[in-house]
Amino acid sequence: MNIRTVHVAAPDGTALATDVCLPDGARPCPAVVIRTPYGRDAHRAELRGWAARGFAALAQDVRGRHGSPGEWQPYGEHEGPDGTASIAWVRAQPWSDGKVVAAGASYAAYCALVTALTGPGDGQREGARPGGAHRDGGPDAVIAAVPALGLVETAREPGGPERLWARAGWWAAHGDRHDSDPDALNRAVADDPGLLEHLPIARLPERLAEPLGRELPSWPRLWAEHGRGRLVAAGATARLPLLAVGGTRDPFADDTVALWHGWGGPARLLLGPWGHRLTADPAAPPRARLNLGALYVRWARAALAGTLEPTRNGVIALGDSGRWHRAPGTAAPGTSSPGRPEAARSWPFGSPAGLRLLHGAEFTADPGRPVRSDDLAVPLDGRPDRCLFLSPPLPRPLDLAGSAVARLDVTADTPSADWAVRLTALDPSGRADPLAFGIVRRADPPGRAADVTVPLGTLGRRLPAGTRLRAEVAGHHFPAHARNPHTGEDPVTATRLVPSRRTVNPRGGALHLPVVARRRYVEPAPEICR
What we know:
Blueprint: E1 3-9, E2 15-21, E3 29-36, H1 44-52, E4 56-61, H2 79-91, E5 96-105, H3 107-118, E6 141-145, H4 151-155, H5 164-174, H6 184-191, H7 204-212, H8 219-224, H9 230-235, E7 242-247, H10 253-262, E8 267-272, H11 292-305, E9 312-317, E10 324-326, E11 343-348, E12 356-359, E13 362-365, E14 387-390, E15 398-412, E16 417-426, E17 432-442, E18 450-463, E19 468-474, E20 500-515, H12 524-529
Parallel strand pairs: 3-4, 3-5, 5-6, 6-7, 7-8, 8-9
Antiparallel strand pairs: 1-2, 2-4, 9-10, 11-20, 12-14, 13-20, 14-19, 15-18, 15-20, 16-17, 16-19
C-alpha cells in the first residue's frame, strides 16, 4: 500500500497537499478523510492502517500549513468549504464508492465537524445506505477526537478565565507560520522564566518576537471573540452518525461531552483515561489499554452500513482500572430512552463526615503571588493564599462516572474574582493525584456573600478505600490560567494587579461527585458500535 501525494483544489483554486493511501484490489471502497494543520506526514502509519482494513485513507494539510499554500487563519471561514471540496473530490475518484468518514483529533476534529455541519446539506445526511445514492456535500459520518471546537472554546474556560499557558504554547508552536515548533514556548520560558507574568497579555507577541524569530499578528483575534457553542448548537440538527472521543484528563473533555449530548443523529461517546494526546499512562496495566484504531474501523463500518441504533450511547473509563461504565444519558440497550443518571453524592464543607476545614477560611488572592497550576504542594503555614479542606479516608472503594461540581458560599472584596477549585486524591501513603479542577469568573458586589457553582468536569475514576479528598479553593491557577487583576478590567489588556481578600464560609456549600450506585460494567467496543 503505497502513499502518493496529490493536490486537491479548494473552491478558490488553492492546491491542498493531500496524501492518499488505497487498499489493495480494484473494487470501489469507502474513504476516511483527515484534514490537519499539524502535518500530513504524521498520519502515514494511520493511513496504512485504514487501508489495510479496506478504506481509502487521505490526510491533507489545511490551507497555509506545511505543503498547502495560502494564508493560515486558525478556525478561519475557509475550513468548511475546503473540506467540502475535498470530500467532493474523493467521491469523484474511480476508487471511491461514495461513502466518506471525516475524522480527526484536536483541530483536525474541528475540520471534520465544520465540514459536516456547514457544508451543503448542513449535516442532514442520515448516514450511508448500503448500495444507496449519496448527495454531494458533507461526509456520511464523523469521528471527532479531543475536539478543539473553536477560538473561544480553546481560549477560555466555559466559566470565563483565559487558558493562558495552553494558548500561548499553541500560538508559539503553530500560529502565523507554515510549519510547527512544538517546544517554542518552553525554550522562550527557559530564557525568561517570568515571560507570562509580564503585562499586558495582549502584548505577549512583542516579547516572543525575538525568541520565535517572527511576529504573531493573529494573537489579538484569539481574544477578540466571545461567543461559544456554535458547533455544538449546529450539531443538534445533524442526522449523520458521530463518534466523539475524549479523555477525562483532556482540558476539552466537557466540550467533547457537550458535542455528544447535543448531537441530533446517532451519537457515541468514548471517554477514556487519557489527556489531549489520547495516550495511556505508561504505568497502566495492560487491561486498561484500548486499541483505538480497531475501534474506529469497527464503528466506521457500522456507521456507513447504517446498522447503528439511532440513539445516544457512551462509555466512561474508571481511570486505569480497565473498567468501563455507561455514560450518564446513554440509552438502555434496545431502547431510545436514556438510562438512569448517576447518583450525586455530597461531601458538605465544614462537616467531619464531609470535608473539614484545615486552613484559610479567610485568605488573600494576590496576583503578584498566585497559586500555581504546576505545583500540587499545599503550604499550611504563613499567610493563607487559599482555603483548604480534607475528607476522612474512604471506608470502601468508590467508582465515579459523570459530572462533578462544587458549590461555595464565598465573599470577595473586589469587583471581579475568579474562584478556582482543585480536587486531589490522596492515597493512604499521602501521594497526591489530581482528580478534578474547575474555575469560574464572578462579578459580584464587593463584600457581599455569593453562592458560587464551580463545575469540575466529567470524572471517570476508581478510588480505593483509604483515599482522602483534598479540596483547595483559590483565586488563581497560574500559569495555566491568566491572573484576574481584580479591578474589573479585561485580564488580557490589564496592566495593574491588586490583591483580593476572600472569605469562604466553612459550613456553606458542598462537593458533589458522580458516584456509581450500581456497578454494571460494559465493554467499550460493543457499546460504542451497537
